[in-house]
Write the structure tokens for this entry.
Amino acid sequence: MFGLLLAVVFGAAQYYLWKRLVRDTTRPGLARRVATVVFVVLYVLMMGAVAVSGTSNWFATALSWPGYVWLACVFYGAMVLGVLEVPRVLLVRAARGREVSVAVGPEVSEGIPEASAEPVPEAPGVDPGRRLFLARSLAVAGGVATAGVVGYGLSEGLGGPQLKRVPITLAKLDPRLNGYRIAVVSDIHLGPLLGRGHTERIVRLINEQQADLVAIVGDLVDGSVAELGEAASPLRDLVSTHGSFFVTGNHEYYSGAQEWLAEVERLGVNPLRNERLTIERGGAAFDLAGVNDVNGKSFDDAPDFARALDGRDTSRPVVLMAHQPVQAREAAKHGVDLQLSGHTHGGQMFPFHLVVGLQQPVRSGLEVIDGTQVYTTNGAGFWGPPVRVGAPPEVTVVELRHNFAG
């Protein structure tokens, strides 16, 4: 159903682009036919890229690069040309007004009574040559703007993740744990467009921070262990004082969650599957817990907050790893102090920022949900188009702080 909806929506958007960029800017003939064939081929590539999402091989890569880049072009092209409809209408009306004035003649414009004037000819439409010039001018403007936005988005999406530092005060944190640093990364999305090199630069950035603990909060992969095991292998080089930990995201369940849980464990990253452990430093401690993603319910691997959180020492804080921010509502019922999440990509491509709130309580950054602090990272990769606009990829170092004022 998702694929069908996407095919209809982007089919309509692509038809609109074809109308404005091809039909309106060319006369019937060879050029229009060739451009139309190109548009059809690009649409097939775009839908092919969507169809092979979740697989990672040479064929998926060959489809995904042109298909997903074109998807971004269609998305932003339709938006830009939609905005340009306003000046297009105004310019067409202005051109029609000038031609009507010329057709009526100076007598009427000078106020000579209608009875004494020559019969007024019927108002013509806009001259075809002028209309063609107008259509081509707006098409060029729209094309340049679209190329600029998509080009910028590609540089953001394919560039290295930014480092973000976020101090978070926990009321129960022992002062001996003040300054404890957790490197948080999510939505790495290894797949047909992101491979081993992507993992290596993330690992390198995290290791440079000399963090106390690494939290990978889901959506590591889009493909099987057989396809992406080598791409994920640099995770074995992660270095931190208390180790690296992992919880499932929704995409793990599309990619073979059980195999990936075994694989990340083999690489030295500890899966937290509805469980918790105690982290100690200098005689002080806090609890680190992890729950499965909500999509695990459809795979007999549902999140279980009671199993992960009940029976603990409530005098010390608990930090929960949970892929989706929406899980904070259940976490709050169990007294979670801080939840670390991803999933949203920060919206990834503006204006999707505006609709994330329909599903998730936090799009990006730190907020409080029902008394629980929730930090949501933009993630370090992308899904679908290799484009990010208004939501740069990131790795975050969360620094836990004691409330000395309290």
Summary: The mean pLDDT is 91. The domain at 162-402 is CATH 3.60.21.10 (Purple Acid Phosphatase; chain A, domain 2).
